[in-house]
Amino acid sequence: MSKIALVTDSTSYIPPALLQRYNITVAPLVLIWGSEAFEDGVDIQPSEFYARLKTATVMPTTSQVTIPKFSEIFKQLLAQDYQVLAMLISEKLSGTINSAVQAKSLLPDGAPVEIFDSQSTAMALGFQVLAVARAIEEGANMSAALKVAEQARQSTGIVFAVDTLEFLHRGGRIGSGSRFLGTALNIKPILELRDGKVEALERVRTRAKSLNRLVELVQEKAGGRTPLRLASLNANIPAEAHDLLEEAVARLGAIEKIEAELSPVIGTHAGPGTIALCYMAGM
Q1: Helix, strand or coil, per DSSP, at residue 34
Q2: Please, how many CA atoms are within 13 Å of residue 1, restricted to the half-sphere of its CB?
Q3: Contact call for residues 106 and 74 (beta carbons, < 8 A)
Q4: What's the rounded Cα separation, in Å, for the pair 246 and 263?
């Protein structure tokens, strides 16, 4: 029976213990800070990134996973007789999928490499990868694994609150949220990833109301489907994210809960103070 190896990218930020358990390979995006380039989650970790961001006079930018990095990963796994399924950040947010496609084109014809657009990022991507990992562990072949990936893509989502739209606007990832630009400081935008893009949902007054609304939105979007898996994500506010996740679990119930940080690449675009809830419902 052929073996299947999963590859994802560093924006998924799946906890290390789960990466190890399911033997998932992570391809790092690139953070560019002045004349320096860092592999996301390898050369720079979230805590270091946010500490540096506080005093930075030059703002960082980001770049997709490189073609050589994907080539290296694919060749190593193929040499171990694996089929490869790469589940990656939305192509509407990053050129990472394009890099993977180009790396695949450099392989011999018929190389068993599949590339899947999650239409998401962060733990919404992570939940999709973990759903497929569980299916592979239970014996799924590539065709079945791809079907699980498609089902998981329809079952996951992410809603998030930002302190400011400045970072999303500067990085060109704001989507329909641009209509919230110039909003009064005490109005907190709530956004979501929809069809692979950042889209505006609504505005609420005060941070506390925005966090409560995140839980309500997840409940609405989950639509009563079970089981429910939840993750909180944060940009340098771990205590607040922990409390939000505990409240969400208490109110909605969940068979799995994960606390994760936003990787430096995603943090560059979302900005400090961003907090999110990711969910997978019905799988």
Answers
A1: coil
A2: 9
A3: no
A4: 22
